[in-house]
Amino acid sequence: MTASQTPTTAEELRGAGLRVTAARVALLETVREGDHLDVEAIASGVRDRVGHISLQAVYEALHALTAARLVRRIEPPGSPALYEGRVGDNHHHLVCRSCGAVVDVDCAVGKAPCLTAADDHGFSIDEAEVIYWGLCPNCSTARSS
Ligand SMILES: [Zn+2]
Ligand SMILES: [Zn+2]
């Protein structure tokens, strides 16, 4: 593979040290095409691509891909775990308190400044998770009218 070629999904899995299966390829594609999907939505996307797959198998594949950092898991309190394909950039999320809509938001200032904790207590920090809570435009319009 040369630098100019975009690796295929299967190559990315292999590069991350994972065994390549049709289910994992389908899952990674589903998560990347989606927008903060929950497990049910991912399972149905995977089934559209490769046919029947158990929810247990979906959970196992998600666990493997999350551990390999090909997929990022976010867990807003009160919401099911959501998965996305945008990884490694330490972006944050806006979550609507009313309808649960989730929107990506880049770091507020420059490059991952949130990784610089006031006091790291000796930890080697590699990720900061920030969730901004509020009402999405649709829900705030609905409330004020
Ligand atoms: Zn909303
Ligand atoms: Zn996101």
TrEMBL record:
SUPFAM superfamilies: Winged helix' DNA-binding domain (SSF46785). The keyword Transmembrane does not apply. It is found in: Cytoplasm. Zn(2+) binds at residues 96, 99, 136, 139. GO terms for cellular component: cytoplasm. Its cofactor is Zn(2+). CDD domains: Fur_like. Transmembrane segments: none annotated. Its main location: cytoplasm. GO terms for molecular function: DNA-binding transcription factor activity; transcription cis-regulatory region binding; zinc ion binding. Binds 1 zinc ion per subunit. GO terms for biological process: negative regulation of DNA-templated transcription; regulation of secondary metabolite biosynthetic process. Pfam families: FUR. InterPro entries: FUR (IPR002481), Fur_C (IPR043135), WH-like_DNA-bd_sf (IPR036388), WH_DNA-bd_sf (IPR036390). The keyword Glycosyltransferase does not apply. It comes from the Bacteria. Keywords: Cytoplasm, DNA-binding, Iron, Metal-binding, Repressor, Transcription, Transcription regulation, Zinc. Belongs to the Fur family. This is Fur family transcriptional regulator, ferric uptake regulator. It comes from Sinosporangium album.
